[in-house]
Specification:
- With 161 residues, the chain is mainly beta.
- The chain has a single domain, classed as Porin, CATH 2.40.160.20.
- The chain contains one helix and eight strands, in the order αββββββββ.
- An eight-stranded antiparallel barrel has the order 1-2-3-4-5-6-7-8.
Amino acid sequence: MRRYLPIFLALLSCVPCVAQQLEHELKRVDIFAGYQFAHLFPSENGRGWNVAATANLNRALGFTADFSGSYERGSALYTYMVGPTLSARTKWVTPFAHALFGGGHADRASAFAMALGGGLDVNAGEHLAIRVIQVDWMSFRRAGESINGNVRASSGIVFRF
């Protein structure tokens, strides 16, 4: 986790730094759909999908529901998490940081799941953005055991309503 902490802190520090207002009104809901690559401890790599919906309470704060599926060699990992998202909306880009909490399910085993991370959306119109990158450090806890060396990276399209 220590090696991913600087990335998370850098993304989080962008939130108060960028205060430029958008020329159009805030969209209340962002829907993300995209590709995901996940590295799971100790040496598993999976590819799959990631979808999320964010209800924007104001320009800086939203509430996100995130779902994902990652697959490798007949195995599957599904996550379902919710939590707050901080954004710094500008005319051209929207950097964000989030803390998500929920569950994960892999091969008949369920666990508590947590993801800390963020990313960068590049605005491509009033109702569309490209999520250039989203990187999350993920932790799973089951039966008193924690697995913390997990990272996922996602990229895709954001629809704004």
